[in-house]
Amino acid sequence: MKRLYTYIFITVAVTLACLSCVKEPLSPNTNGEAITELLEVPEEDVVFDSNQGVQSVTILTRYYYSASAKVDWITCSKLDNKTLQLEVEENKTIEERTGEVEITIRDEHFDVEYSKSFNVRQTRGKATVDAYLIDNAWQFTEYWVECFEEDLTMYVKSNAEYSVSSDCDWITWSKSTNLSNEERDAWSLTIAQNNAVKGDNRVGHIYVTAEDATSTITINQSPFLPSIVLPTSSKEFNLSPAATTSKIVFFTNSSWKASCDADWITLLNNEEIFDNKAYNTNYELSFSVSANEGASMRSAIITIESADSSYGEKQTVIVNQDGAFMVSDVRLQYMEGSHTIDFNVSVDWVITCDATWLTLPTSGTSSDNTIALSVEENNSNQIRKAVVHISAANDSTMHTSFTVTQDHINTIYYHSNTNCSFYINQLTFGGAEIVEHIFDANSGIGRVVFDGEVISVERNEEMAAYPSWGGTIRVTLPPTIKTIGLHTFYNCPVLTRIDLPNSVTSISEKAISDCSSLRRVYCEATTPPAGVSRMFLFNNDNCKIYVPNESVEAYKKAEGWKDYASQIYGYTFN
């Protein structure tokens, strides 16, 4: 038993001695100073070139470690407990830079932490420079300008000191602004006027250089091109028969000359010299016009061109001068009455006319600006016309004529206004096969006349006299009509009834629409005329559509008609 106790004692003593040997290097004292001997980092700087790059370094320690970079251009990535990967960004500056990487280990047993650092060094980057022009938010390194002097702005971005130079003497520059908030500089460029006439563009370069880096801007400038610009007000002149003086205003950048193809126009200054190098200089070309003693209007062309007629623009001006007699044709309504016609004349005159229903003065002087005439009522079914001849009192070869047209009693007159009022004497359609826009306020029609067959228009007593406003009417179309066109009966507030003959084969969109008083539409065709959606647009549901008794169902199913099935009724036509 004594031997057993001795064996156990020896075993325990040996075990304690071994454990004491393991912990002894780590804990010589409570400060844990031995931990500093168990971390090894690179003793020399880890060096990168200026480009973005990756390197791995070895960290020696028995402890778990963490790594952190003290600068933002270094990224640390732990691959395993011995290998640390370092990644650096590109060095875009022209200065060498150094950053510190810190390695930290910790002894959990003694609650001791220890850190050790090493440096990462990156060589300087290359000098960079970027120069450009801006036009409407677009950046350009090549630019085209006209021949005239022009100011431009050049912007420069660089990470180093730079210089500006050029290979030509017609481009000058000066630094205007240091845009520190945009990390760029602004330079003012002045492109001198190119006085070379004709030839090719001239090309100049601006060089912006920083060490080995260069940015180039190319300027293309066109040669001096003669230019003549006429505003709209100077492109055509309409003058009275009297002698007068006028002027043409135009813009040019060069010497110019002018000519005219008519001897009744005299150019008062037909050449100017361009000598101030300004763009679009305002010039005036004065000219005189002799009196036009002829009956007819006459025209001439004035040409303005570059002094060097083989090169440059050419502009023309039209000059119209009224003749001795300027009077327009006249159209009158069927009623009797007196009228006044505006009349431009430059000589004493006489009038002849063989129409008995038209009364005119027989003569007048150059100071008479109007012609008074009177007409009898035209109660026929035909439009009538009279040709009035005017000649100079002392020269029968100087003459002109105009026509007086008078409507007949079978004419519809339409007045488009806020009340949509009109008066009607009688509708005449003749042999027309298509009618449209008869009462269309949007069409702007003021008179609709169809010569030939007279059709019936029933009207109440309120419309018996001229002029008659308001009232109600009924329109019956003749048997020649095949198509009721677009807006034929549109916006007619006094129309109460429409009769469509058996000849009608088609009805267009909005043919009968917005007639607030319309109550009855009679369609005599046995076969429903071809229709479209919206061919009728009634303002109310009170309008009834009467069709042949035997065709009611066919109408209610037909395209266009079926939209109004509830308003279709049978009718016996005679």
First and last CA, distance = 153 Å
Strand arrangement in the largest pleated sheet: 42-43-46-49-51-52
Largest sheet: 6 strands, mixed
**Helix content estimate:** under 10%
Number of strands: 52
Overall 3D form: flat
Mean pLDDT: 79
Using the CA coordinates, give the radius of gyration. Answer: 51 Å
The number of helical runs is 2
Counting helices, strands and paired strands, the structural category is: mainly beta
Explain what this protein looks like in three dimensions.
With 574 residues, the chain is mainly beta. The protein has two helices and 52 strands. It has a six-stranded mixed sheet with strand order 42-43-46-49-51-52. The longest helix has 22 residues, at 2-23. The protein is flat.
Task: Note the main attributes of this structure.
574 residues, mainly beta, six-stranded mixed sheet, five-stranded antiparallel sheet, 2 helices
Please sum up the structure shown.
With 574 residues, the chain is mainly beta. The chain has two helices and 52 strands.
Explain the layout of strands and helices.
Blueprint: H1 2-23, E1 39-40, E2 46-48, E3 53-58, E4 60-61, E5 65-69, E6 74-78, E7 83-88, E8 97-107, E9 112-122, E10 129-135, E11 138-140, E12 142-145, E13 150-158, E14 163-166, E15 171-179, E16 184-191, E17 202-210, E18 213-221, E19 228-229, E20 236-239, E21 244-252, E22 256-260, E23 265-267, E24 271-272, E25 281-289, E26 298-306, E27 314-321, E28 325-326, E29 330-332, E30 337-342, E31 344-345, E32 349-352, E33 358-359, E34 363-364, E35 370-375, E36 384-392, E37 395-406, E38 412-414, E39 422-424, E40 434-435, E41 447-448, E42 457-459, E43 473-476, E44 483-484, E45 489-490, E46 495-500, E47 506-507, E48 512-513, E49 520-523, E50 536-537, E51 544-548, H2 552-557, E52 568-571
Parallel strand pairs: 2-9, 12-18, 20-27, 29-37, 40-44, 43-46, 44-47, 45-48, 46-49, 48-50, 49-51, 51-52
Antiparallel strand pairs: 1-4, 3-7, 5-8, 6-7, 8-9, 10-11, 10-13, 13-16, 14-17, 15-16, 17-18, 19-21, 21-25, 22-24, 22-26, 23-25, 26-27, 28-31, 30-35, 32-34, 32-36, 33-35, 36-37, 38-39, 38-41, 42-43
